[in-house]
Write a structure and sequence with these properties.
By secondary structure, the protein is an alpha+beta fold. It is built from 8 helices and 7 strands; from the N terminus they run H-H-H-H-H-E-H-E-E-H-E-E-H-E-E. Strands 2-4-5-7-6 form a 5-stranded mixed β-sheet.
Length: about 375
């Protein structure tokens, strides 16, 4: 056997409780320092818009320009509601407007709206003396501001629901992505574990054949080579991708074992293009099944020496690995050469790369078969 390789190679989040038993789990509220700042900024912006509208009205004589006390009174109200907003977010998460509890929670939120309206008037009573006071009794102030206060509460609760459901949607997508990756990893590991016993069985069968014909030294060499192969396979047992360098090293060890079995009947050449990065990731054990398939169908079934070529090139953002033999080739009109190795190769590539890969087994131009795998490369 001859082998040629011409290549040098912020604030603590506050968790909201869920709705009562039987209700759909509500999204949790998490308010951070940055979000508190955004809340106060949003209410300040509302105050600026209101002040700007009043200023525009004063320009056309519709109303007098606001005094500094009126400006202070306006922003006092805005900032009081900004202080209320985190509590409103918490209540929105604690009592979501969901199926099964919607009517009950609507009634609760109606009560909460009246409560915040009363709290706003209480703030007027506290800060009023500092800002020049406010006209009317407490009940008059409550009624005067009731509509705008209830509207403000409903607006905040609506925004809170939108934010919380947006977060819940993102979290669900993240969980689904994690579960999908875990499922994919499990399926890939299951596929890979099918390759190990398949390869081990074939090699041990070859050892047994050598022992039957009294080729004890060759059998011992093959067992030693098998030991090296298993060590290399186990070294990357948890990796779905390995550097191309490691994959080529594994194939060379495998070919050394097969070379003991076939002696001069097996000629192998490995060509790696100069621009191919040897640290490029490729699927673990992607080449060995293709080489085994080429040897089994292109060399084992013929009396004369057979040739197997492994070449690796880089083109159009893809790394192309090709295994060619000069055997009888795939059966015409059928799939041919269908087995554990090729079936696993096809399925693993689909799981790892989706549509960004290529795999084919076709007749060679001068006979034999050509197995081609192409995977993305940076």
């Amino acid at each position: 056997m001859s082998i040629a390789l011409p290549h040098a190679i912020d604030a603590t989040p506050a968790d909201a409780s869920h709705a009562s038993s039987g209700a759909v789990a509500s999204p949790q509220v998490r308010v951070r320092w940055g979000e508190l700042g955004m809340m106060f900024g949003a209410w300040t912006l509302v105050g600026v818009f209101s002040l700007t509208q009043g200023w525009l009205g004063s320009l056309v004589g519709d109303r007098p320009a606001a005094t500094w006390r009126e400006v202070a009174w306006l922003f006092e109200s805005m900032w009081v509601w900004a202080a209320f907003t985190p509590a409103m977010f918490w209540l929105s998460a604690r009592y979501p407007l969901e199926r099964g509890v919607r009517v009950r929670n609507l009634l609760l939120h109606a009560g909460f709206a009246l409560g915040f309206a009363a709290a706003d008037v209480a703030a007027d009573v506290v800060f009023g003396p500092l800002l020049g006071g406010a006209a009317g009794t407490v009940p008059q102030r409550f009624l005067r501001k009731l509509f705008i206060n209830v509207f403000s509460y409903c607006a905040v609760v609506g925004i809170a629901h939108a934010v919380q459901y947006y977060r819940a949607l993102n979290e669900r997508r993240e969980r689904e992505a994690v579960l999908e990756r875990q499922l994919l990893q499990a399926r890939l590991q299951a596929l890979e574990m099918q390759i190990h016993p398949h390869f081990l069985f074939n090699t041990l069968h070859a050892v047994a054949s050598l022992i039957r014909v009294k080729e004890d030294q060759s059998a011992i060499k093959m067992l030693v080579g098998l030991s090296d192969l298993l060590r290399l396979a186990l070294r990357n047992r948890d990796a779905q991708e390995v550097p191309l360098r490691d994959e080529l090293d594994f194939v060379r060890h495998y070919l050394a074992v097969e070379g003991i079995r076939f002696q001069d009947r097996l000629n192998v050449r490995i060509d790696v293009a100069a621009d191919v990065p040897l640290d490029a990731p490729v699927p673990h054990l992607i080449l060995q099944p293709l080489v085994e398939n080429a040897i089994r169908h292109g060399v084992e079934k013929r009396a004369a020496a057979g040739n197997v070529t492994v070449d690796v090139v880089r083109a159009d953002g893809m790394l192309r690995l090709r295994v060619t033999d000069d055997g009888p080739g795939p059966k015409q009109g059928g799939n041919g050469r269908r087995g554990v190795g090729l079936a696993n190769t096809r399925e693993r590539l689909e799981h790892l790369y989706g549509t960004r890969h290529h795999f084919s087994l076709s007749p060679g131009v001068d006979g034999g078969a050509v197995a081609t795998v192409a995977v993305p490369v940076a």
